Amino acid sequence: MKRVGVFVCHCGVNIAETVNIEEVIKSIKEYPGVNMAQDYVFMCSDPGQNLITKSIRENKLDKVIVACCSPTLHESTFRQAAKEGGINPYQLEIANIREQCSWVHPDRKEATRKAIKIIKSMVEKVILNESLEPVKVPVTKKACVIGGGVAGIQAALDLADAGHKVVLVEKTPSIGGHMAQLSETFPTLDCSQCILTPKMVSVSKHPNIKIFNNSEVVDIDGIVGNFRVKIRKKAAYVDPDLCTICGDCSDVCPVWVPSEYDRGLAFRKAIYIPFAQSIPATFTLDIDNCLGLSPIACGKCREVCEPKAINYDVYDTIIEEEVGAVIVATGFDLYPVEEMAEYGYGKYPDVIDGLMFERILSATGPTGGEVRRPSDGKVPENIVFIQCSGSRDPERHNSHCSKICCMYTAKHAKLYKHKVHHGNAVIFYIDIRSGGKGYEEFIQDTIEKERVTYIRGKVAKLFQEGDRITVWGVDTLTGQKVEIQADMVVLAMAMVPGPDSRELIKKLKLSTNHIGFLSEAHPKLRPVETMKAGFFLCGTGQGPKDIPESVAQGSAAASKALAMLSSEYLHHDPDIAMVIEDYCCGCGICVSVCPYSARVIDTAEKIARVEEVLCEGCGSCISACPTGASQQKNLTDSQIFNMVDSILKGV
Amino acid sequence: MKIKYYPGCAQKNSAVNFEESSILAMQELGVELEELERWNCCGTVYSMTQDNLMLQMGAFRNLLRVEEEGENKLVTMCSMCYNTLKRANSFVKSSEKNMKKINDFMYKENHQYRGTVEVLHLLELLDKEIGYPKIKSRVKNPLNGMKVGSYYGCMLVRPKEYSLDSRFEDPDILERLLDTIGCKPVDFPYKLECCGAYQVVSSPDMVQNRTYKILMSARRAGCEALITSCPLCAYNLDQMQEKTQETFTDFEGLPVFYFTELLYLALKSQWLKNWNKYHNFDILPILREKKILGELVL
């Protein structure tokens, strides 16, 4: 005979006011298998926990029920107490008589009856509980960071500084991300490259960090703590160790290509370095635009390269890295201007997006920092900025607020006024969202000191006539239509996840919201974890955010990964799926329904198995299993039937 | 190929040239436009009140006629008719409740509408069913050298759910047709702006203002003529030119064609004298200047 002890909590009056505790105790005491039942005003208090520990020892209990609040609150508290009492913690179960009973029922008599039923059913469950041990797995002390923008850089540096090896995978030739393209940063107007490049250098010099540029993650398999990351590295025709960045190759290259770094406002060669401070510091040969690797086709760059750094006889390689944790920092793209029908589908050269304007403002940009418009190089005397282009427009474009546009548009207008003193700057806005340290002051300064005109309203249409752009908008504060003749228009385009990162995220089976931004495990309490164990997120891949927030999130993701990497073993809840091998027919339905990739087919035995470390105990496979071979530990079919029997008894 | 067409009121009155040129041009392309045996008003602006089923009845009854005559395709050349018929059609097709309710009103009819009709604009027929390349191969008189702006107005592309061109902010179905018949299409920013529509009755000043803006914008862009597919637009842009001149002294007009007139001219190298009287701004000088007038017939 099992010896079950039942402890009923009053929770002050939270339970006791609605549930007649005395009656519950009396009824439970008589239930088969129950050895003792006792109540206490606050079970979770220290004396309450001691009561459980002491009773287990004195009454030689082997199973315990605590009837109290939801297990999400105190299950671990009481299981710890059970362990101290000398029994396996998984021999303790919670009967929730607060959230599911006393709080939701006004009738004392009925609530009492229900509380008794809940407790009795849990007694039935616990009687068949097995003693379980947490699943233990060793940890590979290395992390992979996907994306070399400022968030990924910060995460990589924090992990590396803590002594762990880091693999940093970057799709483009250089790390730095969009931040490397910016001119100055709000609200302090410090030069973006000046603050970013030291961090980039630290990454390149760090003995613990290995950068894979021009590389993409192809696949990640394995389990938390032990992932295998497959990386495709594009052929490096220029050996970074030999390249002296002299630029001779670029000088002789006959091919001009619109520069990605300058967002098409300037041209680069087919062999190029994206920007002076690129990391890794080496030229890159863009094979898609190169005339051909054969010396017959061109081969000029190899001829002139003195250190003999250029070798055409190399190929793409697939590299495999074993890591314990993955940080996804895939970043953003701007919503394409070509989607903006009302603003001309991108057909007007002087209607540009915010990042292009950053390049125009930047000292390293195509105009050397002078504000000149793309079409004819004239200094724009009248400039219009349109906030929320493609954002906050659920009917046509994106529903979300891109968060940083209010600030960077104010910065754009301010920098424009610094450079073109006599120019007129007009900003169309829906609302000004300037929540952040020093942000509101920055906006006020732009309005009051720089005399930038803010018009509350949207722009309905843009079109070019002659060399000017007509802007039709509305001032919603006065209700008047507004028509402005502008020399140049800057659209604060929505931030969205780029097509490549969307594809990668899909491949990694990470969940996203409807726009494609990565979903965090809990929007408030687990902001940098994903629903997939061992995957963490940071930066604008999770949602629009500014530099300080991206950096903070990078550090946060690194610290979460560190907590995992710093222990020798990972412990995992053991109340997960298991397979009764004799029943399993190997149909594989469980594999297809498992959202965590925790179910696999053992091809040798032709049965399904559970990767215990991956299983989150969601129960999908158990309900899908046609033979009953898949069972949840400590929530088997027999336990559920007994519970149902007990609840229905005497109905 | 034979296809039922819905003429609409203007084609029998102020835009006879539109109907005639449509029928003739389609004949050249081997398509016989067969007028619906019975038809009534398309409902015009009234049917755009989507919360009032009663106002959809005009358009609906025409669709019912098509089924009754055993057809399932209806083509129309007028932008307004196209819009009202297409909207009424999708309004009843999208909801069984609407379909039943409006059919119930038709108790005196011998037929209940089942929603099998597809409403096409003549431009869709030209672009999607016949195909511009085929039309190009039939062009006898390429209208080379004439710079023409396409004036869409609102009814072809608004609301966007009923637009005949997915690029509703910058459609090009007319420009591509112009290119097909040899003209040089000219883009101008006012090509989608409202012509003032029925306001011409109550506020002619407003329409003069619109005519001024639209035509001057087209002139600035280098247009020598405009084409349209809407009799109301044509009326406002063409017939109002003299009054606009009185108000705006710097105003200069432009010839306004229906797209089918130029299509027929290109296909058959013929211009019907009868059409001249429907044009306020004399269209002959430009056609002569460009040496594309072809044969003038009665």
Explain this structure to me?
- The complex is a heterodimer of chains A (651) and B (298).
- Chain A is of the alpha/beta class.
- Chain A folds into five domains: 4-132, 3-Layer(aba) Sandwich (Rossmann fold); 142-234 and 317-332 and 497-565, 3-Layer(bba) Sandwich (FAD/NAD(P)-binding domain), CATH 3.50.50; 248-304, no CATH class; 335-496, FAD/NAD(P)-binding domain (3-Layer(bba) Sandwich); 573-633, Alpha-Beta Plaits (2-Layer Sandwich).
- Chain A is built from 17 helices and 34 strands.
- The two termini of chain A are 27 Å apart.
- Chain B is of the alpha/beta class.
- Chain B folds into two domains: 2-121, Glutathione S-transferase Yfyf (Class Pi), Chain A, domain 2, CATH 1.20.1050; 140-297, Rossmann fold.
- Chain B contains twelve helices and ten strands.
- Chain B has helices spanning 16-28, 57-68, 79-93, 96-105, 122-138, 173-180, 199-202, 204-220, 231-239, 241-247, 259-268, 284-289, and strands at 2-6, 32-35, 73-76, 118-121, 147-150, 184-186, 225-228, 256-258, 270-272, 295-297.
- In chain B, helix 1 runs parallel beside helix 11 (259-268), helix 2 packs across helix 3 (79-93) and helix 8 (204-220) crosses helix 10.
- Chain B is globular.
- The model of chain B has no long low-confidence stretch (mean pLDDT 93).
- The interface between A and B is small, with 11 and 8 residues.
